[in-house]
Write a structure and sequence with these properties.
The complex is a heterodimer of chains A (415) and B (118). The radius of gyration of chain A is 25 Å and the shape is globular. Chain A has helices spanning 3-8, 10-24, 29-66, 86-95, 107-123, 143-151, 153-164, 168-199, 204-209, 215-218, 220-233, 245-248, 258-283, 298-320, 326-357, 363-407, 410-414. In chain A, 72% of the residues lie in helices and 0% in strands. Chain A is built from 17 helices and no strands. Chain B has 3 helices and no strands. Chain B has 118 residues and is mostly helical. The relative contact order of chain B is 0.06. Classes of the chains: A mainly alpha (415), B mainly alpha (118). At the A-B interface, helix 3, helix 5, helix 6, helix 8 and helix 13 of A face helix 1, helix 2 and helix 3 of B.
Chain lengths: 415, 118
């Protein structure tokens, strides 16, 4: 095997080499596999932790640029060029800060909440594929279902943290987080059905293999709904309810200090990265791109390129969006996104069936017709919203007219 | 199959370790100078007033119940979505009717006014 062939499929080749080495030391295949699995898991779980340090710096830079500041830029001995190592310095500093547990708090749950937050946000990474084969923890045949189940567990950590700290702000924040997250799980789930329907599998690798045409083209409306739902799931503006600093200090994190707060922050940024990855894998064809068949390691490059675009948009939202009120957010979900997602699933199910019954087999032909279906749904939605808006305007005008007549000149004339 | 879920188990243990490690490390490194004042519950500078663990707004509860309908549906719709490509047209329409039943649930909650935030 030449050097370049070794590099082209680096992770698979290193795995095979290590396996041979361990077997050569006289271990049974069971132990060799176990050691490899644990090693692989340790490396896989370290990636999001290190990536978080980068993403914190990246988020600060983007927010700063939008606000006409420079952001972390100290090129001192420790912070590195452009302040790249600022997050490392912060991480080391936060380790030496005192952990304060407020009086009256439920200590066990209070300490367990941040631990579980990080653990649950890391656990999703077990099934994310980063390349054609081998570059994945494990390809579960229920991959996306596992992700749904685990990612909704972060809600429980918020509830645990908020309830156990016996602080009123934290309490309110926890309840808000709960209502927001469960509400937005519905459109997320419904918009997920469309790609699963087209791919016919729940495995993450299978979903990517099915996207010779990215699902973003065939299913733009489910993709947009999914994007809004994940924005809400990570509590990013404009859906920032749980940590609305202008109203409830820091929501469920109010009583946390030192590394326990750091763990919540860490979990939040890992979630941010993870949902962007999931979005790219479901709708933007994941690791697929030119040259991946020949050089599998390129898959990581394409995946990260697409993910960085999504992450950048999410961080730009952070700086550029206002915060919506809780009733607006919930109304937007229950009265707009959920019905729209339901209608989209129904229409796409029937349209796709009819398209294939009509005998159109080319992937681009099917995708194009589905795209047209989506455009029709969008136009219909716009029309309905336009009519509803007109009706609302008429009702307001009528009310204004009525109040005008009540208080108008008659009173003055009589006087 | 079993080994796949064994890997998930191993990975969950690793994830828990990575979650706990920084907090244990911080507990070892950080100063421990507790005082009564430091441990007070934060409430914008005043002493906390009244009980925190009270009965909360029922609105949150209503939304949770409405969510439950759709959560059950998730368990039933995912198998249908996987099999969708092999299904004949009438099976697709049957699932559509099932979805419409769900819509009826949503419409009922909406008309009852439970989606209004009071």
């Amino acid at each position: 095997m030449t050097f370049w062939a070794f590099i082209a499929d680096f992770f698979v080749n290193v795995g095979a080499w290590l396996n041979d080495l361990l077997l050569g030391w006289g271990l049974t295949p069971f132990w060799a596999t176990l050691i490899l699995r644990v090693l692989g898991g340790l490396i896989l779980a370290t990636i999001p932790l290190l990536a978080t340090l980068f993403f914190i710096w990246y988020a600060r830079k983007i927010v700063a640029r939008i606000q006409d500041r420079i952001g972390p830029n100290n090129s001192g001995v420790f912070n590195g060029p452009y302040g790249l190592l600022q997050s490392f310095a912060d991480a080391i500093k936060i380790l030496t800060k005192e952990l304060i547990i407020p009086e009256g708090a439920d200590v066990v749950i209070f300490v367990l909440a941040p631990v579980l937050m990080v653990a649950m946000s890391l656990a999703v990474w077990a099934v994310l594929p980063f390349g054609p084969s081998g570059m994945q923890g494990v390809d579960l045949n229920i991959g996306i279902f596992y992700i749904l189940a685990i990612s909704s567990a972060s809600l429980f950590t918020m509830l645990m943290g908020g309830w156990s700290s016996r602080n009123k702000y934290a309490d309110v924040g926890a309840f808000r987080a709960a209502s927001l997250l469960i509400s937005y799980e519905i459109p997320q789930m419904l918009s997920l059905l469309a790609p699963v329907m087209l791919a016919g599998t729940l495995s993450m690798q299978g979903l990517i293999q099915a996207q010779s045409v990215p699902f973003f083209i065939a299913l733009p409306i489910p993709a947009l709904i999914f994007f809004l739902a994940i924005t809400a799931e990570i509590g990013r503006l404009p859906f920032e309810l749980a940590e609305a600093d202008a109203e409830i200090v820091a929501g469920y994190q109010t009583e946390y200090s030192g590394m326990m707060f750091g763990a919540f922050y860490l979990g939040e940024f890992i979630n941010n990265f993870t949902v962007a990855l999931i979005f790219v894998m479901l709708f933007w064809s994941g690791w697929r791109g030119p040259g991946v068949e020949a050089v599998p390691i390129l898959g990581i490059f394409w995946l990260m390129l697409k993910t960085m675009i999504v992450v950048t948009v999410l961080f730009a939202f952070w700086a550029a969006m206002p915060r919506m009120r809780i009733d607006h957010i919930l109304n937007f979900n229950w009265k707009f996104l959920t019905p729209l997602a339901l209608v989209t699933v129904v229409v796409i199910a029937i349209a796709d069936r009819l398209i294939r019954d009509a005998g159109i087999t080319s992937a681009w032909g099917q995708a194009g017709l589905l795209f047209l279906t989506n455009v029709l749904i969008a136009l219909g939605t716009y029309g309905l919203l336009y009519l509803a808006g007109k009706r609302q305007q008429r009702r307001l005008a009528a009310r204004r007219f009525a109040t005008l007549n009540l208080t108008s000149p008659e009173g003055e004339n009589a006087g | 199959m079993v080994s796949e879920y064994a890997y998930i188990g191993i990975f969950l243990l690793i994830a828990l370790f990575f979650g706990a490690a920084p907090i244990v490390l911080a507990w070892l490194l950080s100063p421990k100078k507790l005082s009564a004042r430091k441990q007070q519950i934060y409430e914008s500078g005043i002493k906390t007033f009244g009980e925190t663990w009270i009965r909360f707004k029922p609105q949150f509860y209503l939304f949770a119940i409405a969510f439950l309908v759709f959560d059950v549906e998730a368990a039933l719709l995912l198998p249908w979505a996987i099999a969708y490509r092999q299904l004949p047209l009438y099976a697709v329409l049957e699932a559509v009717i099932f979805l419409l039943l769900l819509v009826a649930g949503l419409v009922y909650v909406w008309l009852k006014g439970d989606l209004e935030w009071m």
